[in-house]
C-alpha cells in the first residue's frame, strides 16, 4: 500500500491512476489549496474516488500528527511517493511562506512519517519530488546530478534543494531508503493551469495575448506525464541501499533527473501549439522574469543505466494529446481565433 501526497495535483493524480489500474492500494492526501482552480483538482479526484483501492484524506502536509494518525491506521502501508508541494517559481516571490509551510515543514512531516515506518522495519522506499530548478543559473548543459547546485535563483528552488539535503540527513541518520527526482517541465492532459503551455493554449483559444519571456530566447526540456509516471514506477522499484551505485555518501539515498533530454526553444514551442490548436498566437515579448532560468536540459544517461528510463513521447505528440484533452475539458469556442477566420 502506497501513501501518495499531492494526490489531487497533476503528477500525483496520474501516478495514482496508474497505480490503481495495476490494483495497488493508495492512500492519498492533499489539502486542495487554491493556488490554481480547485475544480480541476476535484475533477481529478472524482476519477479516483470510486476505486475500492483508493482512500482520500484532506489534510495539510504541515499537520504531522494528522498524517501520522492516517498512516497508523493502515498497517499495510510500506511505501511513500511524496509529490505534494507548493509548486511554481514565480509565485515563490509573491507568497514565500506558502513554500516554507508546504515544502519545508511539509517535507519534514513526510520524513518523520518515513522515520516511524523505518523504525518498525516497515518502509520499503520513500520517493519524493525535487525539481530541475535546483540547477539554478548553471550554464553547463545538459544538467547532470553531479553538477554543483548551490546557486538556486528562486525560493522555490531553494526549498527543493533543501528537501534533498533534509532527506540526505534523515537517510543517513535513520537508514531511510529514499530517492529524489528532479522533474523537468512536466506537461500533459489534466496539467497545471499556471504553467506556460497551459496558459498559452487557454489564451490562444480565447483570442488573448500570451507573454513570452526573455524575448522567446528560452529552452525547456518538456517531459510528457506518461514518461514521468513510468520513471516514478521504475525508480520506486530500484530501492537504494547504502552501498548502491550513486548513493549519496553512505546513506541509502539517491537523486536522479527525470527529463526528456530534448530541450525545445520557446518560439518553436509556440509554433507547434499554433499548428495543433489552429489558432494564431498574439505574442507579447517580455524581458526575463526574476527567478527564471534560461535553459533546462536533462542529462539522463545515469537514469537510463540504473532504471532503464527512456522517454518515449515526442513534444508534438504530447502537446497534441494535451490539446485534445483541453478541448474536451474546456470546450473552447474554437472559432474565436482560428487561423485565417
Ligand atoms: N509539473 C512540473 O513541471 C514539475 C517540475 C518540477 C518539480 N515538480 C514537483 O513535482 C511535484 C508535483 O507537482 P505538480 O505539477 O503535480 O503540482 P500540483 O500543484 O498540480 O500538485 C501538488 C499538489 O500538492 C498539494 N499541496 C500543496 N501544498 C500542500 C500542503 N501543504 N498540504 C497538502 N497538500 C498540498 C496541492 O493541492 C496540489 O494538489 C511537486 O513537488 C512539484 O514541486 C513539478
What can you see in these coordinates?
The longest helix is centred in the first third of the chain and has 24 residues, at 96-119. Helix content is 40%, strand content 16%. It contains 11 helices and 13 strands. The radius of gyration is 20 Å and the shape is globular. The chain has a domain at 2-187 and 223-258: 3-Layer(aba) Sandwich (Rossmann fold), CATH 3.40.50.720. The mean pLDDT is 96. Helix 1 (10-21) crosses helix 8, helix 3 runs parallel beside helix 5 and helix 5 runs parallel beside helix 6 (155-174). Strand 5 (125-131), helix 6 (155-174) and strand 6 form a beta-alpha-beta unit. The strands form 4 sheets. It has a 7-stranded parallel β-sheet, sandwiched between helices. A two-stranded parallel ribbon has the order 7-10. It has helices at 10-21, 38-46, 64-72, 91-94, 96-119, 155-174, 196-205, 225-237, 266-277, 301-307, 315-330; strands at 2-5, 26-30, 54-58, 79-82, 125-131, 178-183, 186-187, 209-213, 219-220, 223-224, 253-258, 264-265, 282-286. By secondary structure, the protein is of the alpha/beta class. The structure holds nicotinamide-adenine-dinucleotide. Nicotinamide-adenine-dinucleotide (NAD) binds next to helix 1, helix 5 and strand 5.
In short:
Helices cover 40% and strands 16% of the residues. By secondary structure, the chain is of the alpha/beta class.
